[in-house]
Amino acid sequence: MDVWGITAVGYLMSLLGVTTGGPGCVALAGVDLQRSLAWSSSSVEAVEALYVEPASATADVAALQQWSERGLVLESAMLVIGSCTTVEETPDRVRLEVLDRLAPTWAVDTYGVATSLPVDTWSGRQVVLQCVDGVWRYAEVAER
């Protein structure tokens, strides 16, 4: 299976993990998919655009730049959502308790050689999404 097939499987697995969490959890799966695509394109601008405040993307951007500086691109950097619970919800903002982990991901060098990353463990996060101009974005992401 190619990298986009793996990404699709990760996305479908996330959708299974969010079905009982409500619309905010489904929105999270969509934003996470966009994040995966931004990482695969090594686009700092695309990563920053996923956040309400681009300055909130600092940790994400720093990690992306570290991989880029080593001449590596991460492919299929999809988060698999194991569980998602809505804690608070308004029409344009949702606070979620999430258990997720990185799906199978490869670091690809400038020669096209792919090395799989170690399997990730499950991590707890609190994620706040905010809808801005009809688009869901990360407002806050914190480890639990």
Structure description:
- With 144 residues, the protein is α+β, with helices and mostly antiparallel strands.
- It has a single domain, classed as Nuclear Transport Factor 2, Chain: A.
- The protein has helices at residues 3-18, 23-40, 44-48, 58-69; strands spanning 73-75, 79-90, 93-102, 106-108, 114-116, 123-132, 135-143.
- A 4-stranded antiparallel beta sheet has the order 2-3-6-7.
- A hairpin with a 5-residue loop joins strand 4 and strand 5.
- The longest helix is centred in the N-terminal third of the chain and has 18 residues, at 23-40.
- 29% of the residues are buried.
- The model has no long low-confidence stretch (mean pLDDT 87).
Distance between the termini: 33 Å
pLDDT < 50 stretches: none
User: What proportion of the residues is helical, as a percent range?
Assistant: 25-40%
- Return the CATH class: Alpha Beta
Question: What's this, in brief?
Answer:
The protein is an alpha+beta fold and 144 residues long. It is built from 4 helices and 7 strands, in the order ααααβββββββ. The strands form 2 sheets. It has a 4-stranded antiparallel β-sheet. A 3-stranded antiparallel β-sheet has the order 1-4-5.
How does the SSE layout of this entry go?
Layout: H1 3-18, H2 23-40, H3 44-48, H4 58-69, E1 73-75, E2 79-90, E3 93-102, E4 106-108, E5 114-116, E6 123-132, E7 135-143
Antiparallel strand pairs: 1-4, 2-3, 3-6, 4-5, 6-7
Helix pairs in contact: 1-2
